[in-house]
Design brief:
The chain is elongated and about 50 Å long. Helices cover 49% and strands 10% of the residues. The protein is built from four helices and two strands, in the order H-E-H-E-H-H. By secondary structure, it is mostly helical. It has one domain. Strands 1-2 form a two-stranded antiparallel sheet.
Length: 78
């Protein structure tokens, strides 16, 4: 759905891990990763936000990442 949305707005994109998600349980490997050209990334993000597919909080680290960062920082101090 998101891929079709971006392509309809002139952003060429393709999915990575599509076959893995069809062959195995969905989201086992983190879902399909939508890839766009680096030069179009900011435009794609802007369009996805305008279309309601992304929110600013989607760019915040997950609780798991925040925890991992704390653990890494703890060991760096030693």
């Amino acid at each position: 759905m998101v891929k079709a949305y971006l392509e309809s707005l002139g952003i060429e994109c393709f999915g990575r891990d599509e076959v893995m998600n069809r062959a195995y349980l969905a989201n086992v490997n983190g879902g399909v990763k939508l890839l766009v050209e680096e030069s179009k990334a900011e435009e794609a993000i802007k369009l996805l936000m305008e279309g309601g597919y992304l929110k600013p909080e989607d760019f915040e680290p997950s609780p798991e990442m925040k925890w991992a960062e704390k653990v890494i920082e703890f060991f760096r101090k030693k």
